[in-house]
Amino acid sequence: MSRVLFPRFHLTEIEDTSWCPSWLRDHAHASLARLWQIKSRRGYSLATQACNILLDSVGGIGAAAEFTFVDSCAGAGGPTPYFEKYINKQLEAGGHTPVRFVLTDWAPYLEAWQSLSAQSMNISYIEEPIDASKAVRIAGPEKKECRIFNLCFHHFDDPEAEKVLRSAIESADAFLIFEITHRTLPSIIYTATASLFGALSTTWIEYWWSPFHLIFTYLIPLFPIYYVFDGVVSCIRGRTPEETFNLIRRQRDLDLSEWTFTNGEEVVLPPLGTLFWYCGLKKKAQEESS
Ligand SMILES: C[S@@+](CC[C@H](N)C(=O)[O-])C[C@H]1O[C@@H](n2cnc3c(N)ncnc32)[C@H](O)[C@@H]1O
Fold first, then answer.
1. In this structure, is residue 203 part of a structural domain?
2. Fewest CB atoms within 10 Å of the CB: 128, 188, 203, 249?
3. Which spans are transmembrane here (predicted)?
4. How far away, in angstroms, is 96 Cα from ligand 1 center?
């Protein structure tokens, strides 16, 4: 278990401000989408390792067949296209029908989503902005709903995070939070380093044709400064499992009798890159599928 260095402060990331231009945000989200594909020496990408945790948490591949998965803060799509391929390939091999993945965000990145949905008929998206703290159920009555929060839960301050989790408890059947930023030394070092390389490589790989992006990455390092600042602030906003699940337990009027909560952490990109996960699963959903 990593040692938490200091109390949580809800500082503001540049990406959360109203004045942050969309091209700056889109650059960072494209970089995060690529981060999910980076493979460890064992040959598994971050997305694959997260997907295995997701499958274990909901009760295995048979149980996954009963869900619709909602990526609640999808950005540029993050790991969802990999989750979709990985899960549906296994489902089809086992004779199940493929499951649906739905992308939502309060700042929909339609250009990226259109391309992902064109690549798979099991990925769709909601065009209108959806605030995760006011989310409504998307899955039909015949399906269970699992809300996934990829690298985004630290964006919510405590009152907002309480609403996000309340909504999941009241209108979904499971939730999974994945974070790589936390108030631990390995996480801070990893995040600062990965942010710097993320900024430099994203311009090089995806925006090599744009003098604007090239200048503001390599001559005037606007993108690297933005990445490292937001990355370190994300770490300062990380939550322990106790802090996360307390956001639910202290809402005394919530009926948690059917829910189980689990969490864990795994070094996914050695030596320092650690994935922290926090899961809630409705017992009834668990029992029916087992
Ligand atoms: C750091 S990005 C993560 C993007 C993506 N999930 C990934 O892993 O690459 C955080 C995302 O959370 C979204 N977000 C922040 N607050 C939100 C809210 N209240 N409701 C919905 N989306 C929100 C942002 O628009 C952004 O796309």
1. no
2. 128
3. 211-229
4. 31
